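DM from R.C. (forwarded with permission)

"hey, sorry to bug you on a friday — could you get me a structure for this? deadline for the figure draft is monday and I only need the backbone to look sensible"
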Amino acid sequence: MLGSRYAKFCGVNFPAEIQDVLTLPIIAHSALIAFVESGNPFVWQGYLYAAGLFVVSVLGCLFMHHSFNISYNVGMRIRTAVITAVYRKVSVRVWEGGMRAQ
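My reply, with the result:
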């Protein structure tokens, strides 16, 4: 049980790493700048670069959202487990204190 949660927690960074690889702005922007400066008459290449930047940006957002979602869920489960443990400990102490008073 702990192993599966640990694996899920460690797997959070995988989508973030994919997002980092997808959004290498230096390569994409340098290609777009070179296209504009060259005065290339093929307009379809410009549209292709623009569409590529858009697709990479959307995929990066999706992967980052997935990573944040997993992190949030794991954090909420940890929070719930801590609150439950504290509640159980307090309720046992209160119950034992009430039994001693009688």
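R.C.: lifesaver. Residues 43-101 form the longest helix (59 residues).
me: no worries. The CA atoms of residues 41 and 56 lie 25 Å apart.
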